[in-house]
Every structure is written in C-alpha cells, then in structure tokens.
Amino acid sequence: MNFKNEVVELLAPQVDLPKEKIAALIERPKNEKMGDYAFPAFALAKTMHKNPAEIAKEIASQLSSADFAGIQAVGPYVNFAINHEKLINQTLTEVLAEKEHYGDQKLGEGNVPIDMSSPNIAKPMSMGHLRSTVIGNSISETLKKVGYTPIKINFLGDYGTQFGKLIAAYKHWGVEEDVKKDPIMNLFKYYVKFHKEAEEHPELDEEGRAWFKKLEDGDPEAVKLWQWFREVSLTDFKRIYKELGVTFDSYKGEAFFNDKMQPVIDELREKGILHESRGAQVVDMGEDENPAMIIKSDGTSVYLTRDLAAAIYRMKTYNFVKMLYVVGNEQAQHFVELKGVLKKMGYNWADTINHVPFGLITQNGKKLSTRKGNVVFLDQVLKDAVSLAQKQIENKNPDLANKKQVAHDVGVGAVIFHDLKNDRTDNFDFNLDEVVRFEGETGPYVQYTNARAQSVLRKAAKLNQAPDLTNLNLSDDWSFSVAKALADFPRIIARSSEKFEPSIIAKYALDLAKKFNKYYANIKILTNDEQINARLALVEATSIVLTESLRLLGVNAPKEM
Ligand code: ARG
Predict the structure, then answer these.
(1) 360 C-beta neighbours (distance < 10 Å), count
(2) Which of 46, 153, 180, 487 is least surrounded by CB atoms within 10 angstroms?
(3) For the chain, what is the mean pLDDT?
(4) CA pair distance 4, 30, nearest whole angstrom
(5) β pairing state of 111-115 and 77-82
(6) Which residue range(s) make up the domain with 57?
(7) In the prediction, which pLDDT does 378 show?
(8) Ligand 1 centroid vs 116 CA: distance in angstroms?
(9) Which of 155, 161, 163, 342 to mutate to test the pocket of ligand 1 (most atoms within 8 A of CB)?
(10) How far is the CA of 263 from the centre of ligand 1 (A)?
C-alpha cells in the first residue's frame, strides 16, 4: 500500500494538474504532528485566481478517505494524516507475507557489468580496493533486488611496466621460500626496495624496462615469474574476498586484453580519430581538454587502451544495458576519456557507462601510498576487527553458541558497515578503533538490534506465542514510527539503486534500529494480552527488514549475539 499514491489519487480530481506533477509537489510536513503528507496550494494560485490558503481549505473540505485519519488545511497546505492503524496493519501484513522479498521491485532488467575491486597483483590490496569491493558488492545486490542482472567483474591490475620492475627486483633480492610463505608482503617489499634503490641507481629502471620488454616478447623466464606472481597474489586476494563474503563472476584483468588492443587501435585509425602527437598516438578530446593517450612514444599501450578493449569486449559478451565502474574519484578523468573515446568511435552505448566514484581514505590526515610503503594491510584490519568482536562477546555473552562465526560476522560487518554508512563520495580518515566501535552508528548496533528482536521471538515461542496478523490493532506512537519506517523500505531500495548509493540503505537501517529500540524501551512486548501476537508481528517484520537491509550491504545478521 502506498499512501503517497493514495494522496495523489485523492487530489487528482480536485486539482487541475497531471498526477506526476502532483506527486512531485507533495511534501513531508516538518512536524510529524501536522500530518504525514502535505500538498502546497501555491502551485494552483495562478490558475485559480485565489489565495493559496483559501484553495487549501476548499480542497480539504471535499476530501475524505478511510486511509487517512485527517485531511485538513493548514495555512496554504492541505495536510494528510495517515490512519495509523491502517498503515501499521497494511505494512506488517505485506512484510510478513513477502518476507525477504519485501521491497523487491521491477525498475529495470538486463545485464549490468560492475567493474569492482580490481586490485593490482603483487601489491597489498588497498583501502581504496576494499571500498570498491564492498560498494560494488552492495550495488550488485541492490540492482538484483530491483530486476537487473549484475555481473561482478574483477579487472585485476595484472599487467604493465611495473611488472618489469618487479621481476628485476625479484632477480636481485628475491627469495623463493619467502614469496611462498607470504607472497604479497614479500613481493611488495622487493617492489618498495626497488623504488628506493632506483633513486640512487637509475640503471635499475633500465633493467626494469628490459624485463618488461622480455615479458611482452614472451620470454619464458619473464612469463613464468609473472604468472607465478599473479597466481600467488590471487590466492591472497581470494582469502580476503572470502572473509568479506564477496564473489566475482569474472576475473578477466588487464593482461587478458593484451591481444585485444591491436584491433581497437586499428579501428581508431580506420575511423580517423587517432593522431600523432610528439611521437605518441592520441585521440583529441575537444578544445579545452588534453588529448587522450592511446600509445606512448615508445610504442607501448596504456591503461586507457586496455580499458577500451575491455569495454568493447564486455559489450560483445554481455550486451549490457548499463555498465558501472566502481573506482576512486581520483580516476574520474580516466573514465571521462574512456567514455569520450568510445563515443568518438560511434558507440552510443558509451552513454550507459557510469563511473561510480568514491572518496579517499587517509590515515592521520595523510594520503596512503602503496609506492611509499604507507599502506594499511587489510588482512590485519579484518583480523583485528574479528578479535575485538570476540572479546566483546566473551564479556557479554560467554555461553553463546557459534561464538567464532558470530565474532566473524560482527567484526567483518563492522568494517563493511563503516565503509558504507557515509555518502560514498565523502573522504574519511581511517582509524581502526573507530571502525570497530560497537556502539552508536555502527553495523554491530544494527546487528544487536536484530538479535534483540530475535531473542524476543525466541522467548515468545517458549510462552507458546507467535507473530500473528489476525488481531492487528496497534495504535501507539512507537509502533507507528516503526511501521512507517518499514513502509519506507521499498522506496529506500529504489533510491539506493538509482543513485548507486549503499549509504542510503545503511542510514535507513540505523534509523529503523533506533526506532525499534525506542519501541522496545517503551512497550512491554511479551505481556500476555490480546495484542501480544500483533506486537510479535511487528518484531518479526522489523527483524526481516533489518536482516534484508544488512544483506544488501553485504553484512550478515546473526540471530543471537
Ligand atoms: N587496478 C586499478 C587500480 O588499482 C583499478 C582498475 C579499475 N577498473 C578499470 N576498469 N579501470 O588503480
């Protein structure tokens, strides 16, 4: 049941405006006591030649509906107050009938590749890659809920001149056993050392370039090392993905497109959009823009070239309706160029490409930089979060079954939720203590709230009581505020999916949890009276929606904690 639509339907015969226009004009009164919806009569003043307050009065006097407890003019507004019982009844009935499918809707269909995570091999996965992973994953779940078929693609950074350097570094300082033991840590160590040493011994850079050339030419030793680095890195990354509960549909990284670039370059040339500029091959991007580099003066391809080949390949493979790139804001220009070049090639589907950027994570106010070795090791972050969760559980609920699993869900959930609760484009400073805080606006707070609801249901079962909809006459304000939030859920999903913005769901989950906790503090749920089953229905509906909200964020909801 959609009360806003109901308001539109009621108003439509009374006002000389199309329904969409009416819907767009409807507001939420600032003060909830004044009603739940307000229609501003200013919009009619011109055509009706009356003052808005008079118009509001006139309209209000003609309307009545059982769905609304009151419809009245307040100044220049027609205010609608929802019939509380009706909203509570309708909403709980819907949630309990649809369960985890509550909020499912059809806003679109078709394949949507989501380019996400995409870390670089032989380097630790950065906080930026973590953000891309969890944001991409949540967008994927949300798009699925509204009808699309998301395809999660990990565009691994597994090719480029840096691998020449890494091979050179390994040849100088590498120890096979060390790499086998802790691949990323050690490969990364060699890489950092290489950069340091190269400052004083520039001939190292020359060596790096030579090894890259060998790699490109298929030299067996170079290829073997590169493959080995890729393999051990991937194993490490997959461990982190497993912790996070994120899977991918494709791991086709940059290297996969090595042999798919030449046809793109030929096509650019045939279409006459490739120009020579100081020895390099570029595409002009318009008067005020720098040209987009396609081939460097030394003949090697660049990141953009690989992305062009990948985009065209994905269109052929998936025939997508839109494609998303969940990549940090600092690469915005790259995606402008990618879309721009595709458009110049005549590919109008480039318009369906969305760069979904996110803000920068700093530490102590400083930018994190892999090259300088100033990194956060995600493995460690997740481990620390889980062990902090474990401690909390030992304190609060030492007899809990599945302690390990719950600690994992809570610790990892804290990290994910922390990452998703702010608008994705906000920058934030990374502070582990902050991330694993369990009170306030955190994932564990939402999880605790859900576990509390589940605990009430368990206690009720022991009293032989269960949620039931037959006697749904709840009329207190606390129930209403929870039910109203539950009724909002489908709209929240729609908005989050349109804006590719998981924080809308995270903020919603916090709000619903807060409202439920107020309800819990003020209402004796398990009192044995004729409304006990209705109250349990509200508890169950809340748990369903909290669990589903967390699922859409990629966070598990333990039933007990
Ligand atoms: N590997 C890149 C990096 O770490 C991110 C790749 C993003 N995806 C893409 N299709 N360009 O910066």
Answers:
(1) 17
(2) 46
(3) 93
(4) 16
(5) unpaired
(6) 3-82
(7) 86
(8) 8
(9) 155
(10) 22
